[in-house]
Amino acid sequence: LIRPLRESLAGESIGRVMGIVNGTTNFILTTMSEAGLGYDEVLAEAQRLGYAERDPTADVDGHDAAAKAAILASLAFRCDVRAEDVPREGISAVTEVDIAFAAQLGYVIKLLAVAERTGGDESAPEISVRVHPAMLPRTHPLAAVRGAFNAVFVEGGSAGELMLYGRGAGGLPTASAVLGDVIDAAHNLDRGTPGRAAPRAEARMHPADDLRCAWYLNIDVVDRPGVLAAVATVFGEHRVSIRSMEQLGMGDEARLVFLTHVARQGDVMATIHDLRALDVVEHIGGVLRVLGDEEDR
Predict the structure, then answer these.
(1) Which of 67, 93, 131, 286 is deepest in the core (most CB within 10 A)?
(2) Catalytic residue among 16, 68, 117, 130
(3) How many CB atoms lie within 10 A of CB 178?
(4) DSSP secondary structure letter of residue 120
């Protein structure tokens, strides 16, 4: 992937790079989805198969994906991005309930690395780089990436949409990638030339609160008259428009499942904060971004 970004797309104006860049987490989410198992059980299986380390923190908490997102952003936008600059969320909070609702609504959940241009120009781009689980429509090319495979979706101004796909975990695939880099470095040493690098631009990071996308939320509430109106009022106060809502009865409680229209992240976070303060709200479960829809373009 690095070579196409650095060389083949050197003259391309890239709008967004979005992908699955960690094979361990993709294996876990795929198995949870297809086998209906819980996170802890599938993590143990990933460790048994050698996909996850004994200490899986770097993978499941998004550290590995954030480091890769920083590299991809640096290449795509020809600027310097550090891993510590990349906001990240892992997958340990994703539950079987979230996966089941996503499937019912026509989505799959993936841990995504996203690097996108939000403004500026080639010499001084404004960019957003982040890692988080998200819901993708089942029809999106990344939704079909299963198991320990990785894939990265590149959106270019002239080239259009490109996707690179391959194994993202396991000894031999990793060794192959490392060997390719060693051979590349050896060629440069033999010729007495440095590696190819583009001029660096001064990038500005887009404020996280101003990012916009659609959202999924599931909320457990007391099942009594007026609750839905109270919850909907909080959404309205923060200008978060509801696209669809489903209500499920659970004895004395009810579960409300929302999909929103595209909304500002800061407004969604403020909505969640105020929902927690309502006495009728028992628990806020899954909160996931929804990417890849037409609204997201």
Answers:
(1) 131
(2) 68
(3) 10
(4) E
Please state, in angstroms and rounded to a whole number, the distance separating the CA atoms of residues 58 and 127. Answer: 24
Q: For residue 177, what are the β-bridge partners?
A: none
For the entire predicted model, the pTM comes to: 0.89
Closest CA to 109 of 98, 122, 120: 98
pLDDT, tens digit, 9 for 90 and up, residues 38-72:
999 999 999 998 888 899 999 999 999 999 999 99
Q: Which of 65, 76, 79 is nearest to 16 (CA)?
A: 76
Residue (of 70, 91, 107, 89) closest to 25 by Cα position: 91
For 227, the 3-state DSSP assignment is helix
pLDDT value, residue 295: 60
Look up residue 222 and give its two tokens: 């007391």
Phi, psi of 218 (to 5 degrees): -120, 135
Handedness of CA 192, 195, 198, 200 (dihedral sign): negative
Distance (Å, whole) CA 87 – CA 96:
24
Report which residue type is found at 97.
Answer: V
Phi then psi dihedrals of residue 66, to 5 deg: -65, -40
Length of the chain measured in residues: 297
In whole angstroms, give the CA distance from residue 211 to residue 134: 14
Mean pLDDT, the chain cut into blocks of 10 residues (297 residues total): 83 91 95 93 92 92 97 92 94 94 95 94 89 96 93 90 83 84 90 76 89 96 92 97 89 90 97 96 95 70
Alpha-helical runs (H) found in 121-277: 171-191, 227-237, 265-276
Type and span of the H or E element at 80 = none
Give the closest residue to 59 by CA, choosing from 29, 25, 28. 25
Tokens encoding 290: 């929804």
What's the token pair of residue 257?
Answer: 């499942």
Question: What's the rounded Cα separation, in Å, for the pair 64 and 87?
Answer: 12
DSSP line for 251-279: TTEEEEEEEE-SEEHHHHHHHHHHHHTST
Nearest-angstrom CA–CA distance, 44 and 3: 35
